[in-house]
Amino acid sequence: MKARLLLHDLPKAARQPVLRQSSALCFRIKHGRPKVLLVTTRKSRRWIIPKGWLIPGLSPQETALQEAWEEAGVSGRINGARLGQFLHHKHHSDRPPSLCLVDVFPVHVSTVSQEYPEKTERWRKWFSPKKAALKVDSHELAELLRDFKPYSH
């Protein structure tokens, strides 16, 4: 499990309440090589993995699967334990940013749908893990992507 930046390492002035999110590192194997799915954020069109707030009544793993469906139109199964975590600043239009600790779960994709809830709000694209790591802004998420091995967890 990887968590590169520990909360107690932050300067006191930077500390704020930490909220939890769950995310799906969606992957498939194509020609013997892993491909991971990135989606864009709704507003700034930055590349990320599907993620969101924990859903009441669902486990973090089930939340990750739900986010994968809503944001990327994919279904699959969690392939092993949590891969790791990364910190993320969630920006809001009506209040200061929130610091989020995001759990990352590997999702082996079995179905890709052409119709899904956020189709008109996001783009999705498959990348090699190394290319995906170059597309995301988070250094911690990039490291998880670079180190991703689909059958090692």
TL;DR of this structure?
This protein is α+β, with helices and mostly antiparallel strands and 153 residues long. Helices cover 18% and strands 37% of the residues.
Word description of this protein:
The chain has helices at residues 60-72, 129-135, 139-146, and strands at 18-30, 33-40, 47-48, 51-53, 74-78, 84-90, 98-112, 124-127. It is of the alpha+beta class and 153 residues long. It has one domain (17-146): Nucleoside Triphosphate Pyrophosphohydrolase (Alpha-Beta Complex), CATH 3.90.79.10. Strands 1, 2, 3, 4, 5, 6, 7 and 8 form an eight-stranded mixed sheet that branches. Helix 2 packs antiparallel against helix 3. The radius of gyration is 15 Å and the shape is globular. The mean pLDDT is 89.
Largest sheet data: 8 strands, mixed
What is the N-to-C succession of helices and strands?
EEEEHEEEEHH
What is the CATH architecture assignment?
Alpha-Beta Complex
Based on secondary structure, the structural category is alpha+beta
Alpha-carbon distance between the two ends: 10 Å
**Which band does the percent of strand residues land in?**
35-45%
Low-pLDDT stretches are: none
Question: CATH top level?
Answer: Alpha Beta
What is the 3D shape? globular
What is the typical, i.e. mean, pLDDT? 89
Say how many strands there are: 8
Roughly how much helix do the residues carry, as a percent range? 10-25%
- Enumerate how many helices there are, as a single number: 3
Counting structural domains, the number is 1
CATH topology: Nucleoside Triphosphate Pyrophosphohydrolase
Domain Nudix hydrolase: 19-149
InterPro entries: DDP-like_NUDIX, NUDIX_hydrolase-like_dom_sf, NUDIX_hydrolase_dom
Keywords: Hydrolase, Magnesium, Metal-binding
Organism: Ruegeria atlantica
